[in-house]
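Summary of Year 1 activities. Much of the first year was spent building the evaluation harness for sequence design. The harness presents a backbone, in tokenized form, and records the residue chosen at every position. We chose the following record to illustrate the format because it has been used consistently in internal testing since the harness was completed.
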């Protein structure tokens, strides 16, 4: 197992970069588009603050959406 060097940037990225269309979060790391875009400019303290809140977001992606019936209902609304 390889250990990252100590100077590696702090990141929750797991290289599954897909933005959930309704939640607006990456399904891999749970960050918002804005957080991902600003990540390189943030301090490690700011990154840690965001990373500490990521587990709370998991439920936003695990909600059932109603299958085919739910998809049809969402189409009718939009």
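For this record, the design step produced the sequence shown next.
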């Amino acid at each position: 197992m390889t250990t990252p060097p100590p100077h590696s940037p702090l990141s929750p990225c797991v290289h599954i970069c897909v933005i959930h269309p309704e939640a607006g979060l990456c399904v891999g790391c749970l960050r918002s588009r804005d957080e991902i875009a600003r990540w390189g400019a943030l301090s490690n303290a700011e990154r840690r603050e965001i990373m500490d809140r990521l587990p709370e977001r998991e439920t936003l992606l695990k909600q059932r959406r109603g299958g085919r019936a739910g998809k049809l209902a969402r189409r009718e609304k939009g």
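The chain has a mean pLDDT of 85. Quantitative recovery figures across the full test set are reported in Table 2.
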